[in-house]
Amino acid sequence: METLRIDKETRLLVLTGAGVSAESGIPTFRGGNGLWENHPVEKVASPEGFREDPSLVWRFYSQRRAGAAPCKPNPGHLAMAEWERKLGDRFLLATQNVDGLHRVAGSQRLVELHGNLFTTRCSRCEREPFEDRLAYPEGTVPLCGQCGGKLRPHIVWFGEALDERDLLRVGYFLDRKDTRLVFMAVGTSGAVWPAAGFVDGARELGGETWLVNADPADNAHRFHHFVQGRSGEVLPALVTID
Questions:
Q1: Which one of 31, 52, 104, 140 is separated from 9 by 20 to 30 angstroms, measured CA to CA?
Q2: Is the peptide bond before 194 cis (omega within 30 degrees of 0)?
């Protein structure tokens, strides 16, 4: 297997996707037909769906919370947290996953591009998002204690833009001129934008690019290196940090 050496003049940006979570047993929330309980997933993961039936949306996310809560970080999560401990500010992790397992593993320099399953915010007022691990009983729509508006999961839904602050944080890390750039995508399909384009941004800046995936991603041809395998098995031995 190829190995990646990170010296004192190198920074590392890592992007993770659903493949990393799957290795921890995070349950899929829709069947092979793309439906959840015969509902199109857009029905329970969009602003329109929430306006139409917030109770249904909360039942969906309460099920996801209950399914994800017992899951633990796998060796891939732990390896990335260890890289951060060694690299400090020369490391940044951006994830498309919402299960929070990177934080549990110890990652702190973390951008949760699609939000967090265990965080809630108000759909009406500017109250800061807050930790919320409750799986609400069926029929429940929790209300904001400050304004009385409907609370919603702090998730980027279909039709919503990613938080500009998150994209700027990734962009600043990519654009740094103080060190050599390495970009690594792990467990991603390479089909979800704008994250699927990070590899192009890294290459334009002269960065070295790596893909670790169980199967070739849609954008695998755009990486310099492709290591095929499960992230929990590959990552602990992949990187050497001087």
A1: 104
A2: yes
Residue 85 near residue 105 (C-beta atoms within 8 A): no
Q: Whole-model pTM?
A: 0.94
List the catalytic residues.
114
Q: Are 210 and 224 in contact (CB under 8 A)?
A: yes
| Span 193-240, pLDDT tens digits | 788 899 999 999 999 999 999 988 788 899 999 999 999 999 999 999
Structure tokens at 155: 């998730």
| Residue ranges of domains in the chain, CATH in brackets | 4-25+72-114+162-241 (3.40.50.1220), 35-70+118-155 (3.30.1600.10)
* C-beta separation of 147 from 191 below 8 A: no
Residues of the chain with pLDDT under 50: none
Angle, nearest 10°, between helix axes 231-238 and 75-87?
A: 30
- How confident is the model at residue 33, as a pLDDT? 61
At 133, list the tokens.
């691990």
Nearest to 20 by CA among 60, 78, 65: 78
Q: Are 141 and 153 in contact, with CB atoms under 8 Å apart?
A: no
Distance between CA atoms of 106 and 122, rounded to whole angstroms? Answer: 28
